[in-house]
Amino acid sequence: MTKLVYFAWVRERIGKGEEYLDLEPSIVTVNDLLTHLKSRGEEYQSALEYQDVIRVAINQEHVEHDAPIKGAHEIALFPPMTGG
Q: What strand order describes the sheet that includes 61-63?
């Protein structure tokens, strides 16, 4: 099982802060995961509509969307950071 953690407006649109998923063997990269999540319903589609801007951390390390997720205990999804 992999823990998925959602932050900021990603969390608000999905409607939960975290969940645990058994990832199918076909989900190999971050892109695969984002595509899979978008198939889980309207709230995920809304949160991940512009998936290229979604930042991702695997086991608390920032990664690119082509990064493999094998062995991930925790995957965090969050929107871009803004300063102010």
A: 18-21, 2-6, 74-78, 55-58, 61-63
b or e along 30-67 (b: 16 or more beta carbons within 10 Å of the residue's beta carbon)? bbbbbeebbeeeeebeebbeebeebbbbbeeeebeeeb
Q: Is 75 exposed, middle or buried (0-12, 13-18, 19+ CB in 10 A)?
A: buried
Pairing of strands 18-21, 55-58: unpaired
Looking up tokens 């990603």 gives 10
Model confidence, pTM:
0.92
Q: Which of 33, 27, 81 is nearest to 55 (CA)?
A: 81
- Yes or no: say if 14 and 76 are a contact pair by the CB < 8 Å rule: no
6-19 pLDDT tens trace: 999 999 999 999 99
- For the chain, helix, strand, coil in percent to 5 are 30, 25, 45
